[in-house]
Amino acid sequence: MYSPLIVAEALLNGLMLGAVYALIALGLTLIYGVLHIVNFAHGALLTVAMFGVWLLAEHLGVDPYLSILIMAPAMFGLGYAAQRFVIGPASHGSDNSILLVTLGLSIIIENGLLAGFRSDTRTIDTDYAFQVVELGPLLLSFPRVVGLFVALLSALVLWAILERTDVGRAIRAVAKEKLGAALVGIEVSHVYAVTFALGCACLAVAAALLMPVFYVSPTTGRAFVLVAFTIVVLGGMGSIVGALVGGLLIGVVEAACSLFFGDSLGQIGIFVIFILVLLFRPTGLFGARQ
Protein backbone atom coordinates (compact mmCIF):
# COMPACT_ATOMS: atom_id res chain seq x y z
CA MET A 1 0.00 0.00 0.00
CA TYR A 2 1.12 3.54 -0.71
CA SER A 3 1.50 6.08 2.06
CA PRO A 4 -1.25 8.74 2.36
CA LEU A 5 1.31 11.38 1.36
CA ILE A 6 2.06 9.68 -1.97
CA VAL A 7 -1.64 9.18 -2.67
CA ALA A 8 -2.40 12.84 -1.88
CA GLU A 9 0.40 14.04 -4.17
CA ALA A 10 -0.79 11.82 -7.02
CA LEU A 11 -4.41 12.92 -6.69
CA LEU A 12 -3.52 16.63 -6.50
CA ASN A 13 -1.28 16.36 -9.56
CA GLY A 14 -4.10 14.53 -11.33
CA LEU A 15 -6.54 17.27 -10.34
CA MET A 16 -4.26 19.89 -11.87
CA LEU A 17 -3.84 17.92 -15.10
CA GLY A 18 -7.62 17.54 -15.15
CA ALA A 19 -7.91 21.34 -15.34
CA VAL A 20 -6.06 21.24 -18.68
CA TYR A 21 -8.28 18.37 -19.84
CA ALA A 22 -11.25 20.55 -18.88
CA LEU A 23 -9.92 23.39 -21.04
CA ILE A 24 -9.82 21.06 -24.06
CA ALA A 25 -13.33 19.87 -23.25
CA LEU A 26 -14.55 23.47 -22.86
CA GLY A 27 -13.91 24.14 -26.53
CA LEU A 28 -15.68 20.92 -27.49
CA THR A 29 -18.75 21.52 -25.33
CA LEU A 30 -19.00 25.18 -26.39
CA ILE A 31 -19.13 24.18 -30.05
CA TYR A 32 -21.71 21.49 -29.30
CA GLY A 33 -23.82 23.87 -27.20
CA VAL A 34 -24.16 26.39 -30.04
CA LEU A 35 -23.70 24.45 -33.28
CA HIS A 36 -25.25 21.25 -31.85
CA ILE A 37 -22.64 19.10 -33.56
CA VAL A 38 -19.69 17.06 -32.35
CA ASN A 39 -16.48 18.49 -33.81
CA PHE A 40 -14.44 15.52 -34.99
CA ALA A 41 -11.59 17.86 -35.98
CA HIS A 42 -11.06 18.95 -32.36
CA GLY A 43 -8.14 16.59 -31.73
CA ALA A 44 -6.42 17.46 -34.99
CA LEU A 45 -6.75 21.18 -34.26
CA LEU A 46 -5.21 20.61 -30.82
CA THR A 47 -2.29 18.93 -32.57
CA VAL A 48 -1.92 21.96 -34.87
CA ALA A 49 -1.79 24.22 -31.81
CA MET A 50 0.82 22.00 -30.11
CA PHE A 51 3.01 22.06 -33.22
CA GLY A 52 2.59 25.83 -33.32
CA VAL A 53 3.85 26.10 -29.74
CA TRP A 54 6.76 23.80 -30.60
CA LEU A 55 7.70 25.82 -33.69
CA LEU A 56 7.68 29.08 -31.74
CA ALA A 57 9.91 27.57 -29.06
CA GLU A 58 12.24 25.74 -31.45
CA HIS A 59 12.80 28.46 -34.02
CA LEU A 60 12.05 31.72 -32.21
CA GLY A 61 12.87 30.80 -28.63
CA VAL A 62 9.39 31.75 -27.35
CA ASP A 63 8.57 30.24 -23.97
CA PRO A 64 5.58 27.84 -24.22
CA TYR A 65 3.55 29.85 -21.72
CA LEU A 66 4.26 33.15 -23.48
CA SER A 67 3.26 31.54 -26.78
CA ILE A 68 -0.36 31.73 -25.58
CA LEU A 69 -0.28 35.42 -26.56
CA ILE A 70 0.52 34.40 -30.15
CA MET A 71 -1.20 31.05 -30.52
CA ALA A 72 -4.58 31.99 -29.03
CA PRO A 73 -5.26 34.76 -31.61
CA ALA A 74 -3.79 32.57 -34.38
CA MET A 75 -6.00 29.59 -33.54
CA PHE A 76 -9.00 31.92 -33.13
CA GLY A 77 -8.43 33.16 -36.68
CA LEU A 78 -7.90 29.63 -38.01
CA GLY A 79 -11.07 28.39 -36.31
CA TYR A 80 -13.11 31.31 -37.62
CA ALA A 81 -11.89 30.77 -41.19
CA ALA A 82 -12.41 27.00 -41.00
CA GLN A 83 -16.03 27.34 -39.85
CA ARG A 84 -17.00 30.36 -41.97
CA PHE A 85 -15.38 29.36 -45.25
CA VAL A 86 -15.04 25.54 -45.14
CA ILE A 87 -17.25 23.74 -42.63
CA GLY A 88 -20.32 25.97 -42.97
CA PRO A 89 -20.46 26.19 -46.79
CA ALA A 90 -19.51 22.52 -47.29
CA SER A 91 -22.21 21.26 -44.91
CA HIS A 92 -25.07 23.16 -46.64
CA GLY A 93 -26.88 23.51 -43.30
CA SER A 94 -27.10 19.76 -42.64
CA ASP A 95 -25.90 18.53 -39.22
CA ASN A 96 -24.98 15.14 -40.69
CA SER A 97 -22.89 16.84 -43.34
CA ILE A 98 -21.11 18.94 -40.69
CA LEU A 99 -20.06 15.75 -38.89
CA LEU A 100 -18.64 14.36 -42.13
CA VAL A 101 -16.91 17.63 -42.99
CA THR A 102 -15.20 17.87 -39.59
CA LEU A 103 -14.17 14.22 -39.84
CA GLY A 104 -12.71 14.86 -43.30
CA LEU A 105 -11.00 18.00 -42.03
CA SER A 106 -9.33 16.04 -39.22
CA ILE A 107 -8.02 13.47 -41.73
CA ILE A 108 -6.65 16.21 -43.98
CA ILE A 109 -4.97 17.99 -41.05
CA GLU A 110 -3.38 14.80 -39.69
CA ASN A 111 -2.05 13.75 -43.07
CA GLY A 112 -0.81 17.28 -43.74
CA LEU A 113 1.10 17.21 -40.44
CA LEU A 114 2.49 13.76 -41.28
CA ALA A 115 3.72 15.09 -44.61
CA GLY A 116 5.27 18.15 -43.03
CA PHE A 117 6.67 16.79 -39.77
CA ARG A 118 6.84 13.02 -40.38
CA SER A 119 5.85 10.72 -37.54
CA ASP A 120 8.66 11.78 -35.19
CA THR A 121 7.75 13.11 -31.76
CA ARG A 122 8.83 16.58 -30.70
CA THR A 123 9.36 17.96 -27.21
CA ILE A 124 10.35 21.29 -25.72
CA ASP A 125 13.18 21.47 -23.20
CA THR A 126 12.46 23.98 -20.45
CA ASP A 127 14.21 24.75 -17.19
CA TYR A 128 11.02 24.29 -15.20
CA ALA A 129 9.66 21.04 -16.69
CA PHE A 130 10.78 19.00 -13.67
CA GLN A 131 10.54 21.70 -11.01
CA VAL A 132 8.24 21.13 -8.06
CA VAL A 133 6.21 23.38 -5.80
CA GLU A 134 6.29 22.55 -2.10
CA LEU A 135 2.88 22.62 -0.43
CA GLY A 136 3.70 21.64 3.11
CA PRO A 137 4.91 18.04 2.89
CA LEU A 138 3.49 17.68 -0.64
CA LEU A 139 5.55 18.08 -3.82
CA LEU A 140 3.52 19.28 -6.79
CA SER A 141 4.65 19.54 -10.42
CA PHE A 142 5.31 23.19 -11.31
CA PRO A 143 3.93 22.92 -14.89
CA ARG A 144 0.75 21.37 -13.55
CA VAL A 145 0.32 24.11 -10.95
CA VAL A 146 0.67 26.68 -13.75
CA GLY A 147 -1.76 24.63 -15.84
CA LEU A 148 -4.37 24.68 -13.08
CA PHE A 149 -4.29 28.45 -12.61
CA VAL A 150 -4.13 29.29 -16.32
CA ALA A 151 -6.94 26.85 -17.15
CA LEU A 152 -9.17 28.30 -14.43
CA LEU A 153 -8.34 31.84 -15.55
CA SER A 154 -9.15 30.91 -19.16
CA ALA A 155 -12.47 29.42 -18.07
CA LEU A 156 -13.25 32.63 -16.20
CA VAL A 157 -12.42 34.73 -19.28
CA LEU A 158 -14.64 32.49 -21.42
CA TRP A 159 -17.48 32.85 -18.89
CA ALA A 160 -17.06 36.64 -18.92
CA ILE A 161 -17.21 36.69 -22.73
CA LEU A 162 -20.39 34.62 -22.78
CA GLU A 163 -22.12 36.46 -19.95
CA ARG A 164 -20.91 40.06 -20.15
CA THR A 165 -20.41 40.89 -23.84
CA ASP A 166 -22.69 41.48 -26.80
CA VAL A 167 -20.96 38.65 -28.64
CA GLY A 168 -21.64 36.34 -25.71
CA ARG A 169 -25.30 37.32 -25.61
CA ALA A 170 -25.55 36.63 -29.34
CA ILE A 171 -23.93 33.22 -28.86
CA ARG A 172 -26.37 32.33 -26.08
CA ALA A 173 -29.30 33.53 -28.19
CA VAL A 174 -28.29 31.38 -31.16
CA ALA A 175 -27.72 28.39 -28.86
CA LYS A 176 -31.28 28.69 -27.51
CA GLU A 177 -33.17 29.56 -30.68
CA LYS A 178 -31.38 29.96 -33.99
CA LEU A 179 -34.39 31.13 -35.98
CA GLY A 180 -35.47 33.65 -33.36
CA ALA A 181 -31.94 35.05 -33.18
CA ALA A 182 -31.85 35.46 -36.96
CA LEU A 183 -35.22 37.26 -36.91
CA VAL A 184 -33.90 39.92 -34.51
CA GLY A 185 -30.90 40.63 -36.73
CA ILE A 186 -28.17 38.32 -35.39
CA GLU A 187 -25.96 36.93 -38.16
CA VAL A 188 -26.06 33.24 -37.31
CA SER A 189 -23.20 32.20 -39.59
CA HIS A 190 -20.93 34.79 -37.94
CA VAL A 191 -21.91 33.57 -34.46
CA TYR A 192 -21.21 29.99 -35.49
CA ALA A 193 -17.76 31.00 -36.72
CA VAL A 194 -16.98 32.98 -33.56
CA THR A 195 -18.06 30.05 -31.38
CA PHE A 196 -15.87 27.65 -33.33
CA ALA A 197 -13.02 30.15 -33.08
CA LEU A 198 -13.39 30.43 -29.29
CA GLY A 199 -13.20 26.64 -29.07
CA CYS A 200 -9.97 26.72 -31.07
CA ALA A 201 -8.55 29.48 -28.86
CA CYS A 202 -9.16 27.20 -25.85
CA LEU A 203 -7.12 24.55 -27.65
CA ALA A 204 -4.26 27.01 -28.13
CA VAL A 205 -4.09 27.70 -24.39
CA ALA A 206 -4.29 23.98 -23.60
CA ALA A 207 -1.50 23.24 -26.10
CA ALA A 208 0.80 25.80 -24.45
CA LEU A 209 0.11 24.23 -21.05
CA LEU A 210 0.73 20.70 -22.30
CA MET A 211 3.94 21.18 -24.28
CA PRO A 212 6.38 21.66 -21.34
CA VAL A 213 5.55 18.14 -20.11
CA PHE A 214 4.14 16.26 -23.15
CA TYR A 215 5.40 15.41 -26.62
CA VAL A 216 3.66 16.15 -29.91
CA SER A 217 3.32 14.04 -33.04
CA PRO A 218 0.77 14.28 -35.88
CA THR A 219 -1.65 11.96 -34.05
CA THR A 220 -1.20 13.25 -30.48
CA GLY A 221 -4.55 15.01 -30.40
CA ARG A 222 -6.46 11.74 -30.70
CA ALA A 223 -5.65 10.65 -27.15
CA PHE A 224 -6.61 13.99 -25.65
CA VAL A 225 -9.85 14.32 -27.59
CA LEU A 226 -11.01 10.90 -26.39
CA VAL A 227 -10.60 12.13 -22.83
CA ALA A 228 -12.35 15.39 -23.77
CA PHE A 229 -15.34 13.50 -25.20
CA THR A 230 -15.60 11.57 -21.94
CA ILE A 231 -15.51 14.80 -19.95
CA VAL A 232 -18.21 16.39 -22.11
CA VAL A 233 -20.47 13.34 -21.69
CA LEU A 234 -19.77 13.19 -17.95
CA GLY A 235 -20.42 16.89 -17.37
CA GLY A 236 -23.35 17.17 -19.78
CA MET A 237 -23.28 18.06 -23.46
CA GLY A 238 -23.13 21.83 -23.82
CA SER A 239 -22.52 22.55 -20.11
CA ILE A 240 -19.54 24.82 -19.35
CA VAL A 241 -19.68 24.06 -15.62
CA GLY A 242 -20.00 20.36 -16.42
CA ALA A 243 -16.85 20.45 -18.54
CA LEU A 244 -14.89 22.04 -15.68
CA VAL A 245 -16.14 19.66 -13.00
CA GLY A 246 -15.86 16.67 -15.32
CA GLY A 247 -12.29 17.54 -16.28
CA LEU A 248 -11.15 17.83 -12.67
CA LEU A 249 -12.87 14.56 -11.78
CA ILE A 250 -11.38 12.72 -14.75
CA GLY A 251 -7.91 13.99 -13.86
CA VAL A 252 -8.23 12.58 -10.35
CA VAL A 253 -9.57 9.25 -11.64
CA GLU A 254 -6.72 8.92 -14.14
CA ALA A 255 -4.13 9.69 -11.46
CA ALA A 256 -5.63 7.14 -9.06
CA CYS A 257 -5.73 4.41 -11.72
CA SER A 258 -2.15 5.16 -12.78
CA LEU A 259 -1.00 4.94 -9.17
CA PHE A 260 -2.74 1.69 -8.28
CA PHE A 261 -2.81 -0.13 -11.65
CA GLY A 262 0.23 1.32 -13.45
CA ASP A 263 0.64 3.97 -16.14
CA SER A 264 -0.39 1.58 -18.92
CA LEU A 265 -3.85 1.25 -17.32
CA GLY A 266 -4.10 4.85 -16.20
CA GLN A 267 -7.06 5.65 -18.45
CA ILE A 268 -9.10 2.51 -17.75
CA GLY A 269 -11.09 4.32 -15.07
CA ILE A 270 -11.94 7.13 -17.49
CA PHE A 271 -13.66 4.83 -19.94
CA VAL A 272 -15.39 2.84 -17.18
CA ILE A 273 -16.91 6.15 -16.06
CA PHE A 274 -17.81 6.93 -19.68
CA ILE A 275 -19.77 3.67 -20.00
CA LEU A 276 -21.45 4.07 -16.60
CA VAL A 277 -22.59 7.62 -17.40
CA LEU A 278 -24.05 6.49 -20.73
CA LEU A 279 -25.88 3.65 -18.96
CA PHE A 280 -27.25 5.46 -15.93
CA ARG A 281 -27.19 9.22 -16.61
CA PRO A 282 -26.83 9.89 -20.34
CA THR A 283 -27.54 13.61 -19.84
CA GLY A 284 -24.41 13.92 -17.65
CA LEU A 285 -23.97 15.56 -14.26
CA PHE A 286 -25.11 19.02 -15.35
CA GLY A 287 -26.96 18.25 -18.57
CA ALA A 288 -30.63 19.13 -18.91
CA ARG A 289 -33.02 16.22 -18.58
CA GLN A 290 -35.03 15.50 -21.67
TrEMBL record:
Keywords: Amino-acid transport, Cell membrane, Membrane, Transmembrane, Transmembrane helix, Transport. PANTHER family: AMINO ACID ABC TRANSPORTER PERMEASE PROTEIN, BRANCHED-CHAIN AMINO ACID TRANSPORT SYSTEM PERMEASE PROTEIN LIVH. It comes from Albimonas pacifica. InterPro entries: ABC_transp_permease, BCAA_transport_permease. The keyword Transport applies. Belongs to the binding-protein-dependent transport system permease family. LivHM subfamily. The lineage of its organism: Bacteria, Pseudomonadati, Pseudomonadota, Alphaproteobacteria, Rhodobacterales. Signal peptide: none annotated. It comes from the Bacteria. One of its GO terms (biological process) is amino acid transport. One of its GO terms (molecular function) is transmembrane transporter activity. This is Amino acid/amide ABC transporter membrane protein 1, HAAT family. It holds the Pfam family BPD_transp_2. It is a multi-pass membrane protein. The chain crosses the membrane at residues 12-34, 40-57, 64-86, 98-117, 138-162, 191-216, 223-253, 259-280.
